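Course assignment 3, question 2. Fill in each field.
Student: A.L.
Task: Predict the tertiary structure for the chain below.
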Amino acid sequence: MNQSRHGGHLLAAALKAEGVRHLFTLSGGHVAPLYDGSVAEGIRIVDFRHEQAAVHAADGWARVTGDPGVAAVTAGPGVTGAVTAMANAFHANAPTLVIGGKSPLAELGMGSFQEMDQVTLVRTVAKWAGTCWETRRIPESVTQALRHATSGRKGPAFLDVPVDVLAAELPPGVEVLEGDRSDPRPLGDPEQVDRAARVIGEAEHPVILAGSGVRWSDGHDALVALADALKAPVFLNSLGRGCLSPRHPSFFSAARTYALGKADVILALGVDWDYRLGFGRRPFREGARVIQVDVEATQIGRNRPVEVGIAGDPRAVIEQLIAAGVGNTIEPPWTGEVRDEEGRLKVEAEPGMRSDAVPIHPQRLTREIRDFLDTDAIVVGDGGDIVGIAASIIQPHQPGHWLDPGPFGCLGIGPSFAVAAKLAKPEKQVLIVYGDGSFGLNAMEYESAIRQRIPFVGVIGNDGAWGQIRMAQESLYGEGNAPASVLSQDTGYDRMVEALGGYGERVTEPGEIRSALRRAFDSGVPSCLNVIVDPALMKRTSYLA
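Answer field:
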């Protein structure tokens, strides 16, 4: 047996030096030397049935842990299969490294098997993309890629390595060095911080919006301190969910439209003014003063003019604001006003959450899930209407414990995110809230999880349709006129999972939900609960604006 060390060993050693312990992949010959190296270095190889799913898992790992996730895919169609997941990670600012196999350098331009210009292809969905042309420079290339992935607004980086470079015997004197990558936390301009503190002090109706930037800056403890000091309503957006416990007196969710419509000062921390927040224009009160904090200066003022713009790490800037003395000795009446509206909206939702109707009310389903789960459970939302409803009822208590596609809206992330979450936090419950449409996109990844003994529970809110699309089409073109959006509630998704070796159960009565969840978790294998919900009650029942 040939025991010589090659470029695959060097690449694996470079990854291990960066703290990588899991490599997400789909088997391919162009990256076989990396597998050999990963085995030698003790990196666990977690394989999927589609490259998109492998890169989704790297994305999910980053969202749960805050550390870069790493995926490896083979050349050509392996890279093209990964592009959609890279785009999703790019728009979510998830630090990931995608390693692509590449046709041999010796055959470059000759029409080699699966040869293509991969770097040019992925540049629009990666913060950095490049090729390592020499075996001795593999560690340098890994560090360079990760510097781009983890600096500023984070995101995916792509590195491809020709297979002959990867398979080549190590040249003498090559070693993996540590300490050549930093984790900078730039402070905000002190003058702008002081100005922001003055504007906050003048506010009568302040609101804090905390987005993904708070999560990526590891700023949840700082946000708690700010909420304690200011005692203003705090609303969490995207990956910011979980950065403030729902038990905190300043935590709000249902009354966001009401609060933003009346707020005179909005402190936006790591927030994107995109479609999820009406591009910063609605439902905002006319003349509202905005303080925007973002690690990327080019994002400040995008779509929404700001009173104060602070370019800096959100955690560091929050700490600066606290040091500048923002705060109230007692809770202002405004916060109580928002709390009253929050309570009113939740009371309005109670009938749906307590409904005994058949088909099952979707709010009843998600309330049962909420009440069953441990407070530190990780929930993945993979769908449309059912995930919107779930997001309004199920509130994470820790950062990285609510995962959804993010602003790119790429469905099918469910099993990959769940696998990554369970590997990162094996002691915690992991559950996917599925739409029946999104389930089908990567359903075969149940086989990947079953085979590798990585358990999670998927709960399908089965309304027999691509519900958001069906309702939109029918509202425009008339009831029943919704081509390509109708599925079947009779499809045996649960039986499919059983056939693959998991646990499956069809649930039709609301009183069965809790016991079915218990059986699914107790099974110890990847599970699927196929819950038949009332399609007429989707979306309209969500109380989160």
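Instructor remarks: The first helix runs from residue 7 to 17. The radius of gyration is 24 Å.
Grade: pending
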